[in-house]
Amino acid sequence: MKKRNPVERRKDLDKKDLKALAEWLRSDGRDAFRSAIESKSEVEKLVEQMSVIDDKAVKEPYTV
Amino acid sequence: MVNFRFLEYSVEALKAIFEEATGTPGQNIARKNHLTYFEEYFRVLKAKTIIVETPYVDHDFLEDFSAYYVKCFRSYDRFCSRLHFLNIPLSSEFFDNILQSGSDSISVKDLNDAYLGFVVVKPIPSTFIGRTCLKTYSPDGERSFPFTHEYEVSLAGLSLKVKSLAYQEQDSIVAACASTAIWTAFQATAFLFQHHVPTPVEITKAAVRYFPFSNRNFPNKGLSEEQMAQAIRDVGLEPYLVTASDPDLIKATIYAYQKAGIPLILGFGFAGMNSSDGKHAVAVTGYRTNGLKANFPGSTFHLYSSRMTKIYVHDDQVGPFARMEFVPGTNKFTTSWPDKHGLTGNVQAAPLMLLIPLYNKLRIPFELILNITLQFDKLLDLVNARINYRIDDIEWEIFLSRSKELKTEIFHSDLENAEKLKILKRSLPRYVWRANAHLDGEKVEFIFDTTDIEQGNIFICHINKSVNLIRIIKTIADNIDLSIIKSMPLRNIFRSIRDQTSDAW
To answer: How many domains does the structure of chain A reveal?
Structure first.
């Protein structure tokens, strides 16, 4: 049988694939999930910096 | 008696009017960025006629006049001139005919179609561009000007309309760039949140009221971020300050708030120049999203807003709806400021901050919704690494919306009936946060409260317009231990999908 690409496989979901995913999530995937939740990606760290205000900078006037 | 003078449009004619109305020498006017900007702008709008209306009483200038100019030893006029622009030729005789007959070969509707807007000219030297409302460039699918609204103009009793957002130049006396940018932002927020629009001098006074150790109030040389925040609080809104350290986050923040018609103030320095060259503030008034789908550097996280290639700003030193283009691969913009050779596009801006005036019940900040979405996307990436369905290709669109607009959109959508009723009959706060996951025509949307507490359950519900994507997410939701997810909204997203989505196999 011809192998389908990932997008084709997603558009024509196979129940067996989802069953395998469910089994993984209940076994090895559990730790992987926990570790992903507990870690912070670089983008998440960047977002955290969005509202960090520089106390000195907020006092400098915009003069141009 | 009000005088109306009709002139064929040309940039020379415009310059001569400025010279006559303000007493500013022609060579000084020629050096103004505004003249260069208006020349290009009116070329695009195909201006054919200028109508000069004198005298004109301008509320904003009258306040500035009473606060400062009236006490100058030299006598200043309190009346302004107002210039109207049309994209058709129009003579004085023809105009008189319209006024006398009530109609003519050119109807008032035709005149409205031809009307490009107005510029108030203040009777002061050099910094004379007063309240200006001009038509925007044609909005298209990619170009968006979310704050424009109709301004009614009475021209000798003729009721004309222009869809715009008011602009004016700082006079460097009662208002510097920051006061002027806030004044522009208030033009939009007053329309949205029904507050009084203070004049530039009132904004400056409010901003400095609690800062006794700052420099003298008038002549005003500029406001700091905390003073700008104070001016925003003074009209009953809440200032939200964001550090503009990353171009994708700048785009994301602008998109998120502008979709709801909320303006932002952008503060920047000039790239490659010394800090002593000063900082400048402008009001962001539009954007263009004609770029390609892009991920955040070093991740598979895609935001629709990253397609933004340029923003439009009311820059008091340049003109209304001036272009600022993101320089790819950097955290810089090109500006519409001319360089020393008079060429635009070479002076770059290094963004410093975004200041957003918010309705006080808009309590949940954008960054929180972005963070929840990021965490959700990260978990999908993890699953994708296992099953490779390319769900890491999801493009997220996150924005603030009035719930009325969400419901109108749902009402006209082709969602399944049960899904439609679920949203239409639901009680929602006035504003909601929306995070849409787009994947090859499939869409799953998450709705969040804007009024709750950050550590609470701000997730309201999900809206499903997908078949396969939701099956994958439901498989995840059915098979993970939700108790390991600390974030209450994220946990409730999975719970909602688990409990409210049928297996449909």
So the answer is: 1
